[in-house]
Design a protein that fits this description.
- This is 4-oxalomesaconate tautomerase.
- GO terms for molecular function: isomerase activity.
- This protein is of the alpha+beta class.
- It is 16% helix and 30% strand.
């Protein structure tokens, strides 16, 4: 399925091995990793198209299904469950209805989803005329050709800290940053602080080796500050460079995931950016152009924009907290069938 601006393989948990190590080894073979082309599997040779959703009925209060997101590395034998994916999340509700985990409504269906990676909740609402998922519609999102049915994703206020470090602004290696977690640990940095404009193409930014090394150092330090420990082998926190908007939005962004530059922006990363722009004293407050009369924030990215509704409140001790986050995505079923993974590697010295 395509979910938002990502693409991945969606599985029922019952159809995969229960042992995580055995499951992950199978998924590497299913997706064709490690191989930069993923020529022997379903993967699309990019982190945005090498993703997996594992879905099952949920026993958690307030949830219909559990959704485990797994990022399958392209060029390494690595499967990570350290982060959520809000784009793949867009396909979870329709998948749950297609697989009979949730009954469809006559006009529309809302599926309450527990994101296993973090424990956070989301509700996906999408059209089901006549009790069947309808992927056709007029909603258009940047980075995806054509139109499709709208999938409205709404996130309740999380229980965790919006500012994991307790500060609206920290300084790492002389660079001011704002560390936020609104469903995805994210580090906001003014692009100009790193001697780039923030309007470069993803390829140009990826080819800047000095920038890559600087971002790596900032990410490792931010991980420790945010209580994530050693993040050298993980994909979070994400780093987002901020620049003043150029196309009528609130901010222009370039996001790293964590080495490749995103061709758009992830849903949960955008949720972090949107909340971060509203934090007094944060690095996003100055370049952002926000409407005082609307919760809607248009975030510009390399292939267009993402609209997100975000509002903040305060905790009893006066710290900012996320109050509401909602975004419109689309999803589409691409195929339904049986995948034939390549054979498992034989132990050295084994019989052929």
């Amino acid at each position: 399925m395509r979910g938002g601006t990502s693409k991945g393989a969606y599985f029922l948990a019952a159809d995969l091995p229960a042992d995580p190590d055995v499951r992950d080894e199978l998924l590497l073979r299913v997706m064709g990793s490690p191989d930069e082309r993923q020529i022997d599997g379903l993967g699309g040779a990019h982190p945005l198209t090498s993703k997996v959703a594992v879905v099952s009925p949920s026993s958690a209060p307030g949830a219909d299904v559990d959704y485990l997101f797994l990022q399958v590395a392209v060029d390494r034998a690595e499967v990570s469950g350290r982060q959520n994916c809000g784009n793949i999340l867009a396909g979870v509700g329709p998948f749950a209805v297609e697989r009979g985990l949730v009954p469809a409504g006559e006009d529309a269906t809302s599926v309450r989803i527990r994101m296993v990676n973090s424990g956070d909740l989301a509700t996906a609402t999408f059209p089901t005329p006549g009790g069947r998922v309808d992927y056709t519609g007029e909603a258009r999102i940047s980075g995806v050709p054509g139109t499709a049915a709208a999938v409205v994703l709404e996130f309740p206020a999380g229980a965790g800290k919006l500012l994991p470090t307790g500060n609206a602004r920290d300084v790492i290696d002389g660079i001011p940053v704002t560390c936020v977690d609104n469903g995805m640990p994210t580090v906001l940095i003014a692009a100009g602080e790193l001697k780039v404009t923030g309007y470069e193409t993803p390829k140009d930014l990826e080819d800047d080796l000095a920038l890559a090394e600087r971002l790596r150092e900032i990410r490792l330090a931010a991980g420790r500050l945010m209580g994530l420990g050693d993040v050298s082998d993980t994909t979070v926190p994400k780093l987002t460079l901020l620049a003043p908007p150029r196309e009528g939005g609130a901010i222009c962004t370039r996001t790293f995931i964590p080495v490749r530059c995103h061709t758009s922006i992830g849903v949960l990363g955008a949720a972090g950016v949107a909340a971060g722009l509203r934090i007094d004293g944060g690095v996003g407050a100055e370049p952002a152009e926000l409407s005082p009369d609307s919760d809607r924030i248009r975030i510009e990215h390399p292939t267009g924009f993402l609209d997100i509704e975000s509002s903040l409140g305060t905790t009893p001790d006066g710290l900012p907290r996320a109050r509401r986050t909602a975004v419109v995505r689309t999803a589409r079923k691409i195929f339904d069938g049986t995948v034939f993974p390549r054979a498992a590697a034989r132990p050295r010295g084994g019989h052929r």
